[in-house]
Amino acid sequence: MEKAELKKDFIVSVSLIVISIVLYATTYTFKRLTTSQIGPQFAPRLVTGLIFALSVVLLTKTIINWKKAKINQAATNVEVVSEEVLDEELIQKTESEQEVPLSSKSKYVLYTLGLILIYIIAMSQIGFLISTSIYLFAQICLFSEKKYWNIPQFAILSIVVSVVTYFSFRYGFNLMLPGGILG
To answer: 36: helix, coil or strand?
Structure first.
């Protein structure tokens, strides 16, 4: 891994750890409106806990890779690799192994942020089930290559995940999600 990429991973992981701690702490301000054991703070605490755990994993992995990079850098200072070997390795690298350019990655991040914004607005208007199904379908299409698109499979998956999530929250956790036009 490059030093710049390790630095980005370090910054992101530490930032997400701090954000997850702050968001977890804010769940203590939620008013309990139900008599069930699981209140409105359950899902946010679950999500922030997962974000915290995954951020710790990323931070640990980044630190390990940073140490490996230092060891590799020390080893390369001792032995000199010829340009011919490097050229052969670059030639052997297939197209699927080559990294996606940063501008392309940024484009996907912006599209995802746009989809999330539309999803949030749509949820209050048309409800959880329809807006979540549409959002998941669009997100799956965005992240899969066009030659592998299977529209019926994507649609069924999006609908099933939305329905299972809705009924899990509604009947499993006794939490209401926006009904929208379906009531």
So the answer is: coil
Give the count of beta carbons closer than 10 Å to the beta carbon of residue 88: 11
- Specify the pLDDT at position 90: 53
| Predicted local confidence at residue 158, as pLDDT | 93
Q: Splitting the chain (183 residues) into consecutive groups of 10 residues, what average pLDDT does each group show?
A: 80 88 84 72 84 90 87 65 50 50 70 88 86 92 85 92 88 77 66
Torsion of the alpha carbons at 113, 168, 50 and 104, rounded to the nearest 10: -30
**Long-range contact set of residues 166-171: C-beta below 8 Å, sequence gap at least 24:** 166/128, 166/129, 166/132, 169/43
* Predicted pLDDT of residue 95: 46
Supply 170's token pair: 């509604």
Whole-number Cα distances in Å, 114 to 104, 119, 126, 157: 15, 8, 18, 22
What are the sequence ranges of the domains in the chain?
A: 1-98, 100-183
What's the whole-model pTM score? 0.50
Dig out the tokens for 83 from the structure.
């340009």
Name the burial class of residue 158, with classes exposed (0-12), middle (13-18) and buried (19+) by CB atoms within 10 angstroms of its CB: buried
The 8-class DSSP code of residue 97 comes to G
Question: How high is the pLDDT of residue 113?
Answer: 87
Q: Is the dihedral of CA 37, 40, 41, 42 positive or negative?
A: positive
